[in-house]
Amino acid sequence: MSDEQEDPIFGEAGFGTVSGLAVKIMDLSGANGSDPVEVVRGFDTIAHANAFARRYVRDSVDRCRTRGMDVAAVLEAWFAWGEDAEVAGAGDDAWKSATEIHDFAARRAADAEDRNWRILDPRRDGDDEDEEEEA
User: Fold this and answer.
1) Three-state SS across 78-114?
2) End-to-end CA gap in the chain
3) If DSSP states are collapsed to H, E and C, what string results for 10-56?
4) Which stretch of DSSP H or E encloses residue 71?
C-alpha cells in the first residue's frame, strides 16, 4: 500500500475520527480490582481502537487455551486469568468482547495476524520515531 493509499484504520480524517479514544486493559483475575492494569491512548479513529482491542482480547483468549480444552474450559480460563479490553470514548461504536468471546473460545485464531495487537499499538509510533533519530 503506497503512502497515498493510507489504511483507513490509521487515517487522520474521515469517518470515525474521534479525539480522546483509549483502550482500557482489564485483568480478569481481579488482581487490580475494577481498575484497568493499563490504559492505551493515541488512537485517532474508532476503527483503530476497535481493531487493537479485538486483537488484544483474541490473543488473550488463545494464551489461556491449552490442547484439548472445550469451549467452556477456555471461557473459564479466560475469565479467571485473561485480559479484557474496553474501548473508551467511542460510545455505541465501541467494540465489545461479549459480541465475539464465545467464537474466540470455540476456535483458535487461524491467522497469527488476528492476534497481532502489537502492530496496531499507537505507542509503537513513538518507538519508531526514536529509532529513526538514532539512525
Assistant:
1) HHHHCEEEEEECCHHHCCCHHHCHHHHHHCCCCCHHH
2) 24
3) HCCCCCCEEEEEEEEEEECCCCCCCCCCEEEEEEEEHHHHHHHHHHH
4) helix 71-81
114 is written with which cell numbers? 488476528
How many residues would you count in the chain? Answer: 135
Give residue 133's pLDDT: 57
d(C-alpha 119, C-alpha 103), whole Å: 23
Task: Single out the residue of 107, 65, 58, 102 nearest to residue 83, CA to CA.
Answer: 58
pTM: 0.81
| Span 75-85, pLDDT tens digits | 999 999 999 99
CB 123 within 8 A of CB 42: yes
